[in-house]
Write a structure and sequence with these properties.
Chains A, B: Its cofactor is FAD. Chains A, B: Belongs to the acyl-CoA dehydrogenase family. Chains A, B: This is Acyl-CoA dehydrogenase C-terminal domain-containing protein. Two copies of one chain form a homodimer. The first copy, chain A, is of the alpha+beta class and about 600 residues long. Among the domains of chain A are: about 140 residues, Acyl-CoA dehydrogenase/oxidase, N-terminal domain (Butyryl-Coa Dehydrogenase, subunit A, domain 1, Orthogonal Bundle); about 120 residues, Butyryl-CoA Dehydrogenase, subunit A, domain 2, CATH 2.40.110; about 140 residues. In chain A, the strands form three sheets. In chain A, strands 3, 4, 5, 6, 7, 10 and 11 form a seven-stranded mixed sheet that branches. In chain A, strand 8 and strand 9 form a beta hairpin. Chain A is globular and about 80 Å long.
Chain lengths: ~600, ~600
């Protein structure tokens, strides 16, 4: 059976030593009082919840899965899920980063980010129930009417109710412009929605008193395509004016999907049979409103794979130290044992270090993004808000795609460390791989993320935002360029940052003549950008470690950070070479393949 | 639901146009009569069996799995598996490449290779039941006594009985030297075996009248380690002198594993409770005898992933042509439809072409290896037999590890083409990924394969065998070096072949000073070698295609081959750049990580 220990020290390192979040928060009126001790204390408790309540239900939830009663349309979640959710609500966890106006605790998103990393390590399938609520909360917080906010936000904040996002239909996933669900205006200002949605995570369950569905649909006068989509709140039970729950609304689960992973989460086909909803935001502008939720969800998905990478790493490390098999190639290491622990073998270490580096790089990036979100929402200076929003928009597809692709690699390698035992369910490793698989697909496939990054976020403004990130790299070079000890960490990043400019311009130029060039290069480009960002954070982490060591610290933690950074630059970062080459090889070899793909 | 069409034309291309197997067989007395028409006719029938009998049971077998009756120790395979096996036996398929002396059809291994590729595409889990018999057959054919051959080979040839290999124990997988199962000599010359084996594929089932277990165990006077292991035949039912089945032998299934994939195959814990067996080969030399079976199994495992790559590709291609979503970046392609089929998107094509290239490269390599095996066993010239054996030994770990790593990538990408639907069981794509996962683990993990390749097969004889493969590349360069049309296919391979010499020498030199350098480089090295081999075969396939086109052929098949080869060299082959760099970055960043991996 797998184990999980919350990586609190690593989180504290990123938050307090690398990003200095408490200092940053002094400039944010909403969080000026938040100090290091508070953050650490909250996360210590949060870690206990994750490890002690959510984690023990991970394998059992996968084995048992969800069950739909086809008569009542009610879904029974796996044994223990409902109780765990009750404890989650009781502990006040849903309110962590919510607005105090609606009962929230008003803590910064960085805290929520770390808390959710731990929940995802513990139990991705369970975590999706409260996780989706959070996106619904943010969407309504940004776009709801005062009345909608008053009715829904307190219950989403307390966790009494959960939320969903209902976008996909059988014939349209990525291409939401094709969606068909209809919303008919009623005399009382509400709408009656009719249609079918699929792949609705946490669409129906037994954990909360009500479920707040955010549904995309078309008004009768909607223009075709994505400009004719509106957003509606459609609660499972009607909500009375006093906030109490009324009659059942005809939005129900018509079927549960049988999936490769996340078995503990109910992935529902939802039938809307004249379900009553209210409009969120402007008619036909639903997609823009939903994007608040989608962006939150994309960061959340990256965080899912970060969590899986960490827990898979912890278990593979423990196994590699424990499992005795063969002798080290360079001579017996454990003379008193019948064989050496497999951690002596270079390739076993490579697999472990790959997962470790991906977890640490991902954590730094994800925490940085959460800090950007805090600044976007709460910084008094408009320019800082705008810059933070822009940088966050740039980094969001990288968080989503790079961390989830890495998570797939990492969980697979951690499984591989177990040899044949990795294939057996009881060890828990194969579940991490199966759960990690969905993260590359949902909330926009990783190909879609790469097009968002290269096409919209980078070429869309002629590389201006990328230059802003480049400035951060430049700043680090300026600070540490003469520090010989930093050279091994800074040189590769600085060189890549230089190459990126030309690389981006080249693709942009080719893309103007033929847009398929952008589509052909995008996936490789995103991985290069991912390494630029990871490389930057590994250099910053090394900077902190070197400073601590120079200041006399003998804490092995800092030497460990340098070892991981060295591994990263030697074994993982160099893939940018091939990626830039394959990206440059263009679209022709893909598109001139009519006969090969006949 | 997925579909499968046997890729007969592609197989014929490799066998008859690239490898000219029928010409090669003219030099082999055992196969001198085998002609193109016979091979094609057999494979056409074999394809029907795969597509019509084995394939329809693939998803149902996965869903249903195997069931153990704990009282009788009998295993019930999924519905339909037993009937399909009966048809397989009835059709004479087990005998395809078996020795006519024992009732075999005596066809070359190339035919069996292609037949098994199709079976693996159709149903890997089912195919493992007859597949393991084949390894047992080969092992006994090479090392059994005349009496053992007479008793067992006819029944394995007819398929009345199946075989297994019983190696792994709970505490030892890779490190067979640690195994503990005991064999006590009896007065009648037999042995009583006691111990526990795990991960025994097809270890117990309801498909055959008897199961022939090949079991590794220790004699009482065995020296410790791998030099004290002997090999035994331990049948499920005793075999009487007349070949009929007698009493139950106490070797039974104590439990079935719950696995990530290949649910239709019974992965058994086997208890030997004084089970009676007979010795195969010399005492304490069991590992060498078992290696005949292991080498066959390693080629077989590569073939499993080749099959999965092909079937995943076929289904992803069909879906990509059918699924309408978004418009092409370079302008609407299907004006009459609400969206373009997703095959218009460059990255969708990249995923499809990756799978296609891996399937075609893998098929060429696997058929070539089967031809080498035929020559090793049947060529009248001893030098040819020896050279073929050596080259086959070099290529075996590449077939096992490179094709299975590629198969993991390819099945994942084909699943990705389906978007969210790829995660849903009913589409069948996620099963291909789950089934493909085990192929990187069993019969020696891919790390073990890489050590076998670099440490034993290459550095072990100072690169002499690698040079033999290099000569094949040199020959092709000589033939086509002045042909401008071949330059794009030949230049990258020729350049890599040149670089390999220095690259290998460098690692060998470092490895003499520190063996961990070999362990650190091996996995990257194997992938570089894999691309050298694939590159060579893509160049040869392009050569054939160009000659056909030059000779006036208008068959689009040949243009398609050129398109796939161009894609391969532009998008897949270039990873050798990064791999050579990371391999060269050495072991220090892996080994000096005591604190990071604390």
């Amino acid at each position: 059976m797998p184990t999980y220990t919350p990586p609190l020290r690593d989180m504290q390192f990123v938050m307090h030593e690398v990003l200095n979040v408490a200092d940053e928060y002094k400039a944010l009126p909403a969080h000026a009082e938040v100090d290091v001790d508070t953050i650490n204390a909250v996360l210590e408790e949060g870690g206990k919840f994750a490890a002690e309540v959510a984690f023990p239900l991970n394998i059992s939830g996968d084995t048992e899965g969800c069950k739909l009663d086809k008569t009542t349309h009610e879904v029974k979640t796996p044994t223990g899920f409902k109780d765990a959710y009750a404890k989650y609500v009781e502990g006040g966890w849903p309110a962590l980063s919510c607005d105090p106006e609606y009962g929230g605790q008003g803590l910064p998103f960085v805290v929520n980010q770390c808390f959710y990393e731990m929940l995802n390590s513990a139990n991705q399938a369970w975590t999706m129930y409260p996780g989706l609520s959070h996106g619904a909360y943010e969407c309504l917080h940004a776009h709801g009417t005062d009345e909608q906010k008053k009715l829904y936000l307190p219950k989403l904040t307390s966790g009494e109710w959960t939320g969903t996002m209902c976008l996909t239909e059988p014939h349209c996933g990525t291409d939401l412009g094709m969606l068909r669900t209809k919303a008919e205006p009623q005399a009382d200002g509400t709408y009656k929605l009719t249609g079918q949605k699929i792949f609705i995570s946490a669409g129906e369950h037994d954990m909360a008193a009500n479920i707040v569905h955010l549904v995309l649909a078309r008004l009768p006068d909607a223009p075709p395509g994505s400009k004719g989509i509106s957003l509606f709140i459609v609660p499972k039970f009607h909500v009375k004016a006093d906030g109490s729950v009324g009659e059942r609304n005809p939005i129900y689960c018509g079927g549960l999907e049988h999936k490769m992973g996340i078995h503990g989460n109910a992935t529902c086909q939802m039938i809307l049979d004249g379900a009553v909803g209210t409009l969120v935001g402007q008619p036909h502008k639903g997609l823009a409103a939903m994007f608040v939720m989608m962006n939150a969800a994309r960061l959340g998905v990256g965080n899912q794979s970060l969590g899986l990478t960490e827990v898979a790493y912890q278990n593979a490390l423990a196994y590699a130290k424990d499992r005795l098999q063969m002798r080290s190639l360079s001579g017996t290491k454990a003379k008193d044992k019948p064989a050496d622990p497999i951690i002596v073998h270079p390739d076993v270490r490579k697999m472990l270090l790959t997962a470790k580096a991906y977890a640490e790089g991902g954590r730094a990036l994800a925490c940085y993004c959460a800090l950007l979100l805090d600044k976007e929402l709460n910084h008094p200076d408009e320019k800082v808000r705008k810059d933070s929003a822009e940088l966050l928009a740039l980094l969001t597809p990288i968080v989503k795609a790079f961390i989830t692709d890495n998570g797939w690699q990492a969980t697979m390698m951690c499984q591989q460390v177990f040899g044949g035992h990795g294939f057996i369910k009881e060890w828990g490793m194969e579940q991490f791989v199966r759960d990690a698989r969905i993260n590359m697909i949902y909330e926009g496939t990783n190909t879609i993320q790469s097009l968002d990054l290269l096409g919209r976020k980078i070429l869309g403004n002629n590389g201006a935002t990328l230059k802003k990130f480049g400035k951060l790299v430049g700043q680090l070079v300026e600070e540490e360029g003469v520090n010989e000890k930093m050279a091994e960490f800074i040189n590769p990043v600085a060189m890549l940052a230089d190459q990126m400019t030309k690389f981006t311009t080249e693709i942009g130029f080719k893309g103007m003549q033929n847009p398929d060039e952008v589509g052909a290069a995008a996936v490789d480009y995103l991985r290069v950008a991912g390494h630029l960002v990871f490389g930057y954070f590994f250099a910053r982490m090394a900077q902190v470690a070197l400073r601590q060591i120079a200041a006399g610290s003998t804490d092995p933690f800092y030497q460990a950070k340098l070892q991981t950074a060295r591994f990263y630059f030697a074994k993982l970062f160099p893939e940018v070479q091939t990626l830039m080459r394959t990206a440059r090889s263009g679209s022709k070899v893909l598109m001139d393949t009519e006969l090969a793909l006949a």
